[in-house]
TrEMBL record:
NCBIfam families hit by this protein: PRK00024.1 (NF000642), radc (TIGR00608)
GTP-binding among keywords: no
GO molecular function: metal ion binding; metallopeptidase activity
All copies of domain MPN, residue ranges: 104-226
Keywords tagged on the record: Hydrolase, Metal-binding, Metalloprotease, Protease, Zinc
Transmembrane feature ranges: none
Gene: radC
Originating species: Sphingomonas gei
GO biological process, alphabetically ordered: proteolysis
Membership in a protein family: Belongs to the UPF0758 family.
Protein name: DNA repair protein RadC
């Protein structure tokens, strides 16, 4: 009778390396392998971990992948999908906490780290609006819309109305380009200027519009486009 492989010793060694060496002690596939082992303990999860990283282009693409996309991979069940999404959620909460702790404009790198983890690898375009108070502290981070592979509509009236409802002194627009290229389109520039003009009339500043992609990010403010 065939027996299931005993991975106890191997996993114990991974665990010990993690405890002693910290987050950089394990390779990407080893981190995912160990995480999956918590969900499916009686299986050798190394091949599945490597297959997942290959399919999604690395650990960032894997953790940000939609649950439906993860579930389509052979060997992935609800428990293993949930394990990966829980890891992603924990990482986002850590990064979001660092953003919320200080004024956003004085904590720009933390904001970019959070936004990249949240949005850079999504397969569809999504639009977020970050609402800030008069001290530039984050008061709300909202997903405003999502669309197709290359477009998610932005409605100036909805953005400004929501800012008024929340009492926002300033906002930051954010969206991703699933193509990976964060270069702004003509439509991106035009909608940003429309929102900025509408906000100016009501005393609501548009600090920036950040576009994210797997290849990096673009700040329309830094490009002189606002």
């Amino acid at each position: 009778m065939a027996t299931e492989p005993d991975n106890t010793g191997h996993r114990a060694r991974l665990r010990q390396r993690l405890f002693e060496g910290g987050p950089d002690a394990l390779l990407d596939h080893e981190l995912i392998e160990y995480l999956l082992a918590l969900a499916i303990p009686r299986r050798d999860t190394k091949p599945l971990a490597k297959a997942l990283l290959t399919e999604f282009g690395g650990i960032a693409g894997l953790l940000t992948a939609d649950a439906e996309a993860l579930a389509r991979i052979p060997g992935m069940g609800e428990t293993s999908v949930a394990a990966l999404k829980a890891a992603h959620a924990a990482a986002l909460r850590l990064l979001r906490g660092q953003v919320a702790a200080r004024p956003v404009l004085a904590n720009w790198q933390a904001l970019l780290d959070y936004l990249r983890a949240e949005m850079a690898h999504h397969a569809i375009e999504r639009v977020r609006v970050l609402h800030l108070n008069a001290r530039n502290m984050l008061i709300r981070d909202e997903l405003m819309n999502e669309g197709s592979l290359d477009e998610a509509p932005v409605y100036v009236r909805e953005v400004i109305r929501r800012a008024i409802d929340l009492g926002s002194a300033a906002i930051i627009l954010v969206h991703n380009h699933p193509s990976g290229d964060p270069s702004p389109s003509r439509a991106d520039i035009e909608i940003t200027r429309q929102v900025a003009e509408a906000g100016k009339r009501l005393g609501i500043a548009v600090h920036d519009h950040i576009i994210l992609g797997a290849e990096g990010h673009t700040s329309l403010r830094a490009q002189g486009l606002i």
